[in-house]
What we know:
This protein is an alpha/beta fold. The protein is 26% helix and 26% strand. It has a seven-stranded mixed sheet with strand order 1-2-3-4-7-5-6, covered by helices on one side. The termini are far apart.
Amino acid sequence: MISLSQRSIIIVILLIQFHGCRTENQNINTQTHQTMVQVNHYTSPEISGPYSQAVRCGNFLFVGSQSSTDLKTLEFIDGTIEQQTQIVLNNIVKILNDAGYDSSHIVHCTIYLRDRNDYQKMNLVYGGYFEEGKYPTRSVIIGTEFRNPKTRVEISAIAYKPH
């Protein structure tokens, strides 16, 4: 479960990040407002639900929580914590690439783990996706109950790329 302080931090981060953003269909009257643009991986079938895989706002790209899912079919891929972490991070990289970003642009990740015993194994895979010493900030939330009972990890990311 997410504690009240963790929720507050997440809300503050999102408020700071989205300050000045407007959705694409709203009128933009000043240069201080950015447009929010949906970014969905090009090979994915129609997404079922009111969400985007990613949203670009100015120089920021917010990648929604990814699970161990095939982006082409949206079918869940079961596996060990290492396998699921690799699939999740590969999905994030694909979504980043589609928007013109890469893993070096990630400034923050939120990691949701079902079991605290998976932390070290997840960490070994996670660390391999970033340049040594240039890791993004992150939050790890342990004890998450997922919609799919076989899910062991989900990760969301925020990337920043100066244009």
